[in-house]
Fold this protein.
Amino acid sequence: MPKRHSVIVTLTAKPEQKSALKKTLRSIQRELPQVDGCLDVRVLSHADKTGCFTLVEDWSSQSQHEAHIQTLTSNGDWAKLEALLREPVLANNYIPLETEDINS
């Protein structure tokens, strides 16, 4: 059985694109949980860095997340997102630390 997979994504808006990025993130927060394999998404605004946001995504598996990113890339949505950003997308992947991992 595939392990649950979490992704933490940091996005920093170009100053003139901050409103557009917020609108996009609201849409992501509504629509992403409907994507096959997405269990949850939280969108956070950084308290000390204006225009910087973090998504915390939980997926049933890494392959489902990768399939979603492939869809975004092939349909052009990823490029539209990147056009709003001052810095490249920073994404880190995580898997749960299982009890047996903690005890070893």
Notes: The domain at 5-94 is CATH 3.30.70.100 (Alpha-Beta Plaits). The helical segments are 18-31, 62-74, 77-82, 99-103. The chain has one domain: 5-94.
